[in-house]
Amino acid sequence: MLKNNASFMVVVMHRLRELWLGQLPLEVAFWKYAITYGLALNLIATGTTLVLIVLNAPIATAIVMHLLPVPYSILAICGVCRSADHYSGRQIVSTVTKASVIVWFGFWLVA
């Protein structure tokens, strides 16, 4: 079991490294890592934050919970922007994708 977990973590770290370096195709970096995984992570953090507020937890705890996805968001933004820089298609797609991912995570930061 431990070997399977170690293998899984190696694969995850390899994929995150590829994302960070912009080595993933733009559509994978944007749709899979930024939108899908980012949405899941932000929904979980936002939901947990709301539960903490309802339960009258210290506000500092709720703020920390709300901000937990920020490091992943920065990773995804950088990865998408770097993948967009390597994109060989139309320039407008690259530009709109960069702007979209920044707006997407900006929304979740203030939501």
Notes on the protein architecture:
It is a single chain. Helix content is 86%, strand content 0%. The chain contains five helices and no strands. The chain is an all-alpha fold. The mean pLDDT is 95. The N and C termini lie far apart (39 Å).
Secondary-structure blueprint:
Blueprint: H1 2-21, H2 26-54, H3 59-67, H4 70-86, H5 91-110
Key terms:
mainly alpha; 111 residues
Sheet with most strands? none
Order of helices and strands: HHHHH
**Strand segment tally:** 0
Proportion of residues in β-strands = under 5%
- Main structural class: mainly alpha
CA-atom Rg in angstroms: 16 Å
What portion of residues is helical?
Answer: over 70%
The overall average pLDDT, rounded, is: 95
Spatial gap, N to C terminus = 39 Å
Q: Specify the number of helices.
A: 5
Silhouette: flat
* Uncertain regions spanning at least 5 consecutive residues: none
